[in-house]
Amino acid sequence: MDLKEFEADNSVSCRLASSVPDICKTEACCLGIDEAGRGPVLGPMVYGICFCPVSKKDDLKELKLADSKTLTEAQREELFIKLDEAKSFVGWALQVLSPNTISTSMLQRSKYNLNAISHDAAIGLVQFALDSGVHLKEVFVDTVGPAEKYQDKLSQRFPGVEVTVRPKADSLFPIVSAASICAKVARDHAVKGWNFPEQMGDVDADYGSGYPNDPKTKAWMLKYLDQVFGYPQFVRFSWSTAQTLLDSKAVAVHWDDDEEDGEKAAARQNNTSMLSFFKAGSKTSGPQGNTHQPHRFFTERRLQSLDTL
C-alpha cells in the first residue's frame, strides 16, 4: 500500500483510493465501512470503505475475509493483496486522519468529538464513492454510538441507498471485513513508517500497540516527553493518558492573571518554573535529569538564551 502522500505531511489528513472498476459503475454495488485505530493514543485513525457489485458477493466470500482484529499482520497483508488483485470488481478508499487532526479537533474551542469525526469520515467516504461513479445500492457499517440513530443519520444523508448499521459488522458482512482489512493495513504501514518532523534523531520504534494501557506505550511516552513542548505529533495529545503525563511531568505554566488559592500556589512552587528553560546556556535538564539540546523551535529560529539585556 502506497502511503507516500500521507508520509509527505503526516500532520494533516489525506484520502487514498484505488481505481473504480468499470463494473461498479454499471451494476448495483454494496459498500462496507470500518475503521482502524480509534482507541490508541499513538498514530492515525484510518477509515476505510470497500465496494463491489452485489452480484459478486459470493466471489468476495471466496477470499475468506474476516475481521482484521482477529487476523495476524501477515494474514492481513496477504488478504489486502488478494483484494488489490481483485481490482476488476473490487474498489477501496481510505481517509487517514492524522493524530494532529484528531487532537486539534477535539481540543478546539467548539468541541468536535471523536464520534462526530468518525461519522463525518464515513459520510465523506460514501460521498466520495458516489462522486466517483459507483452505482451504490447497499451500505453496511459497524456502529459508532447508538446503531439505530446512526442508521437513520446515514439513511437521511443518502436517500435511495439501503443502510444497515450493526455492532460487530466487520465479522457479519464480508464487505465490511474487507474495509476493515484495508483500514488496518494502512494504519500499520503508517505507524511503522512514521516520519517524525520534530527531527528527534533515532527514535525507539518499540512503542507497543499504541493503546493507553500498554506498558510499552506508556514507557515510550514518558521517554519522549519534552518538558516544554510536550509530545511529537505522533501522539494524540487530546487523550487523557497524554494529559496526565503532561500534568505530572512537564513544566507548569503560570499565568499572572490567574486567581490562585494557597493550595495551587504551593503546588506551583514545587514544580520547575518555565523560566528555568530560558536561562543562559544551550542545554536544559529533562524529566529524568538528562541534558538535551534545545528544542527545534529555538534552533530553527536561531534563538539563544541571554542572561543580560
From TrEMBL:
A divalent metal cation binds at residues 34-35, 142. It catalyses: Endonucleolytic cleavage to 5'-phosphomonoester. Keywords: Endonuclease, Hydrolase, Metal-binding, Nuclease. InterPro entries: RNase_H2_suA, RNase_HII/HIII, RNase_HII/HIII_dom, RNase_HII_hlx-loop-hlx_cap_dom, RNaseH-like_sf, RNaseH_sf. It holds the Pfam family RNase_HII. GO terms for molecular function: metal ion binding; RNA binding; RNA-DNA hybrid ribonuclease activity. Residues 28-251 form the RNase H type-2 domain. GO terms for cellular component: ribonuclease H2 complex. PANTHER family: RIBONUCLEASE H2 SUBUNIT A. The RNase H2 complex is a heterotrimer composed of the catalytic subunit RNASEH2A and the non-catalytic subunits RNASEH2B and RNASEH2C. Belongs to the RNase HII family. Eukaryotic subfamily. Endonuclease that specifically degrades the RNA of RNA-DNA hybrids. This is Ribonuclease. It comes from Umbra pygmaea (Eastern mudminnow).
